């Protein structure tokens, strides 16, 4: 499990970015938020896994840390 911080999230589109603890930016879709809420605040510390979709890594199983 990786850790990072939500650095952007557009609730209307459902897309966001997490900056991992090692500085890598990882995109995510709101469907990957583990609690099913489909919304998360910018600045939230999270734990997540990487999932390869369409030949790129995305965050999945996103949970507040």
UniProtKB/TrEMBL annotation:
Residues 3-63 form the CSD domain. GO terms for molecular function: nucleic acid binding. This is Unannotated protein.
């Amino acid at each position: 499990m990786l850790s990072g911080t939500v650095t952007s999230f557009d609730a209307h589109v459902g897309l966001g970015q997490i900056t991992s603890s090692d500085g890598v930016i990882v995109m995510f879709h709101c469907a990957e938020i583990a609690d099913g809420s489909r919304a998360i605040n910018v600045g939230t510390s999270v734990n997540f896994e990487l999932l390869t979709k369409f030949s790129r890594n995305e965050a999945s199983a996103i949970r507040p840390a």
